[in-house]
Amino acid sequence: MKKAGILNRHLSGALAELGHGDGVLVCDAGMPIPDGPRVVDLAFRAGVPSFAEVLDGLLAELVVEGATAAEEVRAANPAATALLESRFPGLALVPHERLKELSAGARLIVRTGEAHPYANVLLRCGVFF
Predict the structure, then answer these.
(1) 2: pLDDT strictly greater than 80
(2) How does residue 1 score in pLDDT terms, banded at 50, 70 and 90?
């Protein structure tokens, strides 16, 4: 068994397969999940695990070169807005419908137990060198 880092074997394996430019959608429990991308559903119950916990865990494991969220997050979820802007100074914002379209092209979707609106972000993987 791994001693540190992400212990969930499905998530750990999926992260190891990602390459430069691949997309990872980290989403709340209400985000529609498109057919196609690999999905690791971590939702246990409403709020568990939180969007912030999952996002910070992923950021400890991944190199991220860009992030996109729904512009509606600013009005509907100030806490998620503050979290995203603190982690991604160059955060791109698009309409929620566009974020849903973009999520279909993600290589991996990680579903959290978050139960607040628009706690979703599409990460673009970078490289460590």
Answers:
(1) no
(2) low
The candidate with the shortest Cα–Cα distance to 31, out of 104, 129, 128, 124, is 104
DSSP 37: S
As a whole number of angstroms, the distance between CA 98 and CA 100 comes to 5
Is 96 catalytic? The answer is no
Question: pLDDT digits over 24-55, tens only?
Answer: 999 999 999 999 999 999 999 999 999 999 99
23 burial type by CB count under 10 A (0-12 exposed, 13-18 middle, 19+ buried):
buried
75: CB partners within 8 A, 6+ apart: none
